[in-house]
Structure formats: C-alpha cells, structure tokens
Amino acid sequence: MSLVLEQNANLQPLHTLAFAAQARYFARVQNVQQLAQAYQKAQTDKIPLYPLGHGSNLILPEFVNAFVVQWMPKHIRCCAQTSDYVELEVDAGCVWDDLVNFSVQKTWYGLENLAAIPGTVGAAPVQNIGAYGVEFASVVQGVQIFDAQKGELFWLEASACEFAYRHSRFKVAAVQGGLRGHTFIVAVRIRLAKQGQLNFSYADLAQGPDAPKTPAQMAARIRAIRAAKLPDPKILPNVGSFFQNPVICRAQAQSLQAQYPQIPLYATPEPDKVKVAAAWLIETCGLKGWRQGHVGVSPQQALVLVHYGHGRVQELLTLAGLIQQQVKQKFAIELQPEPEYWGT
C-alpha cells in the first residue's frame, strides 16, 4: 500500500491545545515501508520527519515545516507469561489509557497509577511518563525502533533507553548521542505482575474508608482525582502539566523550607537532590487562575496552562515565559517546560 500524503494539512484537531496549525506534509502510516517512504520524501525536501501521537504533550507553531506522520497500528499482544508475570507487546498507535484499562481488567499490576494520562503508547517512552509515584520505566522491557536512515527494525532494551525523570534517549538529537531524528518508536514491550502490591506513595490515594484494593479500583480512584484536579482538554484545551517539577539541591530546599515551611518537597533517587512541586511555586506567585488574553493558568490546577479559544500559540509562549520569570525571581528556581515545541 502506497503512502497517502496530504499537503498543508490542518493539525488543529490533532493536538490538545487546539491552536491553528498546519503541516507542510502529513500522512497516516500503517507499516515501516510507508514510514520509510515518508522519511525519503522528507530527506528529498530537506525537512524533518516528526511522529505525532495524540498531540497531548505538544506545542505547535502556526506552520510546521516538516513531514508529520501518525503511526496507526494499535494492537496489544501477549508475548510471554509465567505464573508471576505477563509480557505484552503493544503497538505505538494504541491509546495509552486503553492499555491501562486492558491491564487492570485482567487484574495485572503495574499501570494502574498511570490511568487517565492522555496520549498514545508510542509517546510513553519518549517522556518516560509518570504519575502518582510510578513511571513507565518501571514496567518497560524494551522499545521497538525503526531506523529510517538504515531501514532497520530492532528492539532496544530498556537499560539502553537512558530513562530518567521525564527524559529518555528519544528526546535527545542523534548528534548528541540520542535517538531523535531518524529513529521512530513502533512498539513497546512491558512486563506486568499477576500478583502485586498497590502503590500508595501519594497520601490522597489511600484516603477514606474505601481505599483501593485492586488495580481496577486504584485506576478508578486516580481517574476521579485527575478529573477533579485537571481540566478536560476536550472542553478546555491544554497539555496537562506544562512544567516539570524542578529538582534542586538539598541545601537550597532547606533554605526555602526555612522561609516557606509549607513548601511541598519530595525525595528523589539521589540523596542530595529534592523535587519541588512546580504547581505550588506558581500558585505562591499568585498566578493560579491568571488569564492573559486567550490563554491563562487553570483555576483548577496551577501547573496547567489553558487555551480559551481563538488564541495564537505565541500568547501561550509569552505566558509561559512570564511564569518562568516570576518563579525564578521569587525562588531562584528555573522551571522547564514539559511539552515538546516544534517551533524555533
């Protein structure tokens, strides 16, 4: 099947911020042969080839001078199992929350705390998605890659993906030792436990007399919490958390805690580092609910920037810069955006 290419494609309905955006070329690809065709076309025209999932962690400029592709296969396959665990191979086009639902219905442990995260499975390793004390890195065994430059399809073991907080090799350009640019995620392999313990590392997960006892119950609890705290992007366009929770040295954290006893601090794997709640920093600057033209800071959650409609992406970037400036001025902490920006 040959590639069906669309020129000057409308991307507005394909990303959750819903700003007007066009791509020079766009195609939905069904296999690596079509992906190779798209890569060759991009090379001929001297433009990048960008993979697009659900656009739920993405900021688009008004014109994307690139070839944008969506990987469409979305199957879930059982590839191995024992009495203790099951291993699944999942296509990159699968909706992430569909995979979570599939796993908790089977009473398998591992994905329940990652319920209600928007996007596709292919985006999970790029960002090393995480929530409520769990990261994608805790379940992944390998990532299947198509190297369009070499025309090779291969599996990359999890240990070679360099997963860290909201980071992986897939976010780093090839010239810097990463995998971004000519390699594309087509599937992942994950391992889930058949017997396990629920992760209650966030206190609000265990509150009340009806604390979750199964993966399905935990997923339902997290869906309810997220629905109460986060605006629905289908109603009020957003990309969820706009800034990463900054990691600072323990000495700086202690200094801030002396000045602000209520500051939320969280342990990290590095004993001399501490994670700070970015939402608290923004809210303490008085920016929660702040509106600037067609964009603003959500009144529900200070970490979420929203688009009220009919705006332009530059308005959002300006607002993000203002927030970064005020947080740095007040706390000497630099906030880093979480979504990827395809502009310059």
From TrEMBL:
Chief location category: cytoplasm
Location(s), subcellular: Cytoplasm
Superkingdom, taxonomy of origin: Bacteria
Active site as annotated: R166, S241 (proton donor), E338
Pathway the protein takes part in: Cell wall biogenesis; peptidoglycan biosynthesis
GO cellular component assignments: cytosol
Keyword Amino-acid biosynthesis attributed: no
GO MF term set: FAD binding; UDP-N-acetylmuramate dehydrogenase activity
Catalytic activity: UDP-N-acetyl-alpha-D-muramate + NADP(+) = UDP-N-acetyl-3-O-(1-carboxyvinyl)-alpha-D-glucosamine + NADPH + H(+)
Alphabetic keyword roster: Cell cycle, Cell division, Cell shape, Cell wall biogenesis/degradation, Cytoplasm, FAD, Flavoprotein, NADP, Oxidoreductase, Peptidoglycan synthesis
Keyword Cytoplasm (UniProt): yes
Pfam families per record: FAD_binding_4, MurB_C
NCBIfam families: murB (TIGR00179), PRK00046.1 (NF000755)
Protein's name according to its UniProt entry: UDP-N-acetylenolpyruvoylglucosamine reductase
Native species: Allopseudospirillum japonicum
Upper taxonomic lineage: Bacteria, Pseudomonadati, Pseudomonadota, Gammaproteobacteria, Oceanospirillales
